[in-house]
Amino acid sequence: MAGTATATWRRFAASTLGFWFAAASVLVVPAARSEEWSLENTVQTRLESNDNYRLSATPKGRVDVLSLGSALTASRRAESSATRIDAGVTGYVVSGESGQNRVDGNLGLSQSITNLVDSYNVDLRYLRDSTFDSELTTTGVVLARGQRSSASASAGWSRALTERLRFDAQASLADVSYERQQSGGTDYRYAVLSGSLEYLVSELDRLSVRFSHSDYRAAAAGTHSEADDFLVGWSHTLSERMSASVDYGLYFNRSADRPLVCPAPSVLCEFGLVEYARATQDVVSSSRGGQYSAAWQYRSDEVTDAEVRLSLQLQPSGASVLLETQSFSATLNRRLSPTVTGKLDAVDSRSRYLGAGIASRPSYRSLGVAVSKALDLDLSVEAGWRAVRSLERLSGSSAHSNLIYASLKYDWPRFSASR
Q1: Confidence of residue 143 (pLDDT cuts 50, 70, 90)
Q2: HSE toward the beta carbon, residue 125, CA cutoff 13 A
Q3: How confident is the model at residue 69 (pLDDT cuts 50, 70, 90)?
Q4: pLDDT score, position 147
Q5: Rounded mean pLDDT of 168-196?
Q6: What whole-number distance in Å separates Cα of residue 41 and Cα of residue 151?
Q7: CA dist list (Å): 414 to 79, 220, 373, 376, 417
Q8: CA–CA distance, 174 with 155 (Å, rounded to integer)
Q9: Whole-number average pLDDT of the chain
Q10: pTM of the full predicted structure?
Q11: What is the gyration radius of the CA atoms in the chain, in angstroms?
């Protein structure tokens, strides 16, 4: 498994470098005749009250959180290229739980270059986050709140083979680390290589085929997983206001784990008299299954829009394993008046841990309601409520939380210039 892993990483590095050398050698960008620059900035403050801030099985009481953040976007666009920089910072003051004041931030750079046949893109991102929205929906009570840092890079190439047929290739690498003292998360690295073909059947229908290979490593936990998947997709525009898409395929997963074992009779470890130790040899396992994703969108007269998504997919986690996650989400937005908009959203997620080293089946449910009002062209206020329930189905451990919030957002006037 170790030899295969080394070969995978070498292939990943070689293919990424080769891709960009090839792009640099064949791409001829015509001189830009016009350019446009823009600058946008948003400032937002939010007050939140949560009766189970950490979403733990034993809540410690109500916690109030006051945050102040700013997001900046700078972009440059020419006839054959575009550049975008995103930056943001948010500070949190937490009342009711000591040691939780923190600062989150993000920084991103993306560049795209196009010509008549090919398009190239690269994206670099750094994120320091403590909201854990994506983690909670998949790991629930298994992974506690904390702060997470992630650095990611991706590169893509797309070529129009004919007027109806297009090929896409993508390579990405993400390195994620956790503040272990609080979250209990395990640092991991996740790489993906993928390729796809899309065929335009008609103005209303598209067919696609996608292959990908992923490599997941959680070194501290001794976990390494590789997965290959194949998907066939179809999308159809039902009307001017409605569209639908569906993808279905298979995945094949291979995992090598070094689980925690008790070096003495298990009863001694269960009572805390002897510490668990990690096994010295890999426990190898394999699995395969189906995966799918489906989406439906509807928009009516710029007053109501709705979206429903259903999927079963593999994804990385901070719990030292790959997850097979089945999720359902629904969102409804409706303009109640020229200045008032309402939103209703629901999420239901169920996960299964892949690998021999851990057995867990967390589930997550969330229901939220929000109402926003435009006080001016650049100023808006929003208030909302959200209920969350998380359950570990094997152990029966569960957690509930309810939060209410109010926020005020100001969008600075957009600055733009062109030549």
Answers
A1: low
A2: 21
A3: very high
A4: 79
A5: 86
A6: 23
A7: 21, 46, 20, 15, 10
A8: 12
A9: 84
A10: 0.81
A11: 24
Q: What is the pLDDT of residue 30?
A: 43
Question: What distances in angstroms separate CA 70 from CA 88, 208, 343, 367, one per listed residue?
Answer: 6, 39, 23, 27
| Amino acid found at 242 | M
Which amino acid, residue 201?
V
Highest mean pLDDT among 42-51, 96-105, 274-283: 42-51
Q: Are 405 and 47 within 8 A, CB to CB?
A: yes
Cα 406 from Cα 408, distance rounded (Å): 7
C-alpha to C-alpha distance for 213 and 190, rounded to whole angstroms: 11
Do 327 and 311 contact (CB within 8 A), yes or no? yes
pLDDT band at 5 (very low <50, low <70, confident <90, very high): very low
- Domain residue ranges in the chain: 129-418
**CA-to-CA distance for 92 and 145, rounded, in angstroms?**
14
Examine the pLDDT at 13 and tell me if it is beyond 50.
Answer: no
CA count, 13 A, side-chain hemisphere, 165: 4
The rounded distance, in Å, linking the Cα atoms of 290 and 314 is: 10
385-388, Cβ contacts within 8 angstroms, sequence gap of 24 or more: 388/55, 388/136, 388/364
Are the C-beta atoms of residues 57 and 400 closer than 8 Å to each other? no
Domain 129-418 has CATH 2.40.50: no
CA distances from 25 to 13, 20, 28 (A): 18, 9, 8
Q: Higher pLDDT residue, 2 or 133?
A: 133
Can you tell me the distance from the alpha carbon of 419 to that of 329, in angstroms, rounded to the nearest whole number?
44
CA–CA separation, 190 vs 217, rounded Å?
7
